[in-house]
Amino acid sequence: MAREHLSCFMQCWGPSTKEVWRKNMKNPGGNNHSDPVSEFILLGFLCTSEIQIFLFALFSVIYVLTLVGNLCIICAVRGDHHLHTPMYILLANFSFLEIWYVTSTVPSMLANFLTETKTISFSGCFLQFYFFFSMGTTETFLLSVMAFDRYLAICRPLHYPSIMTVGRCIRMGACCWVCGFTCFLLPVYLISQLPFCGPNTIDHFLCDPGPLMKLSCVPAPATEVTCAIFNSVLIFSTFLFISSSYTLVIRAVLRVPSAEGRHKAFSTCGSHLAVVSLFYGSITVMYVSPTAGNAAGIQKIVTLFYSVLTPLFNPLIYSLRNKEMKEALRKLFRTLRLPQRQPLKT
User: Fold this and answer.
1) DSSP string, 209-237
2) In principle, which of 147, 247, 250, 291 could form an S-S bond with 242, CB 3.0–4.6 Å?
């Protein structure tokens, strides 16, 4: 019995079963191979109803914990004047981004667990595609700015106050958002111009460029290569910048004479390095090479990791490894408690 449940659960991550695939290939919207597609079907995780309910409950809990964790970091930074520094302003900006990053995919995924049709409109699919990947691009830029901030703080401590002012930090954060939402206009435009005439079934839980390009009526090698080059340049350029910054940071830390000073510097940077490793490790697997070579099950698992799990881990990583953040969170929780009753005046 246990082996049967395990086998059924594993089907959620793998290729579609023939029965479900055939059912969804009947073009419920009335499209045939000559009519343009007006909606897509997101297959998501093909499981039994019991496992669908279990996954709905699991991802609902993860979503709520992610929102609460990142909101706590934002409120802690806002409420503690000791944290009104560039490092923590960037961290609050990053947590704000993570809230919207996970919100762009998880609510629609949860809705699909409870519906039979699992449809999404053509415009809704490309809006999700645009916002999800634009926020992912913004995250790469924000991680780069956070690495630059740590480089200045450790390698150029005397110049740090004059270079990384609060006003300049806010402007750099705003620039990350503008660039992130501007850069991904090209891939979205190129893929949206492909002819889609059916079938309209996407074997994924979100509108991902790989499965979308597979649904094109005609092969699109130029678009696929262009998107792969775009992703590779974006990922490797920002990752190279972050790696170079931390290489210089590690060299500077190793020259610190006291063990306590080295430990403090490594502790400050360790959280950021952990987040960078989680994020870049997963997106490199997905988007550096053309997506045609990735199986549907691998796409779902890797996408689930960097789109749902890393936003959950980030507040835990930053709060557990940072004494100032832990103290600010304690103050926040104390202020959120119900105020004690005031004694009655006689």
Assistant:
1) HHHHHHT-SS--HHHHHHHHHHHHHHHHH
2) 147
